[in-house]
Design brief:
Blueprint: E1 11-17, E2 20-25, H1 36-48, H2 82-93, E3 119-124, H3 130-142, E4 147-152, H4 165-183
Parallel strand pairs: 3-4
Antiparallel strand pairs: 1-2
């Protein structure tokens, strides 16, 4: 992955073709919080990438600013905690009225999900974002969108970075889903 001109040094961006762009945020000193400037840059990337109505592959680890108030007793204790999440959302939203956060800032606020392409969602069973991921899958299916959902037992936020059976299996399943979406087969 290379630095693209015009992007801050902590944002790695590479356009693979007109339909595919890879973005990696590397701001460990800020816990990878997304500032308003970075959010605008990400929005620009999405707007300038040609849409493919058949495919949606996004890896987003928080799409609902309201998750900072989750009271799930088993999630958010490892990897990315409620405190990390509150810090990240506060950094992104600043002084914005939390009741008036627009969907482009907190995707879970979108009301019309109809017409979205088939969606693959996978999440760890003890990841802080479990409930928002399940809710997103529910809302998509109610809107008539095909959803493939996997909840990985015992997995916490960023479990894929570890060399474990569940992370290997999750990567295999994700690769298969992406291949199926791109090429129509799972081989």
């Amino acid at each position: 992955m290379t630095f693209d001109a015009g992007f801050p040094e902590h944002v790695l961006y590479e356009r693979l073709d007109s339909h595919i762009g890879l973005v990696m945020l590397n701001r460990p000193e800020k816990r990878n919080a997304i500032s308003p400037d970075i959010a605008s840059m990400l929005e620009l990337i999405v707007e300038t990438t040609d849409p493919d109505p058949e495919i949606r592959v996004m890896i987003i680890k928080s799409c609902d600013h309201r998750s900072v108030d989750s009271d799930h007793p088993h999630t958010g204790h490892f990897g990315w905690t409620r405190e990390h999440n509150r810090f990240g959302w506060d950094a992104m939203l600043g002084d914005m009225d939390r009741a008036a956060v627009p969907p482009h800032a907190s995707a879970a606020r979108a009301t019309d999900l109809s017409g979205l392409p088939a969606t693959f969602i996978h999440i760890g069973a003890i990841d802080l974002f479990l409930e928002e991921s399940l809710d997103h899958a529910r809302r998509l299916t109610r809107a008539g969108v095909a959803v493939e959902l996997h909840v990985w037992p015992g997995a916490f936020h960023a479990f894929g970075a570890y060399d474990t059976h569940v992370s290997h299996e999750a990567r295999r399943v994700a690769r298969t889903a992406i291949k199926r979406a791109l090429h129509g087969d799972a081989k």
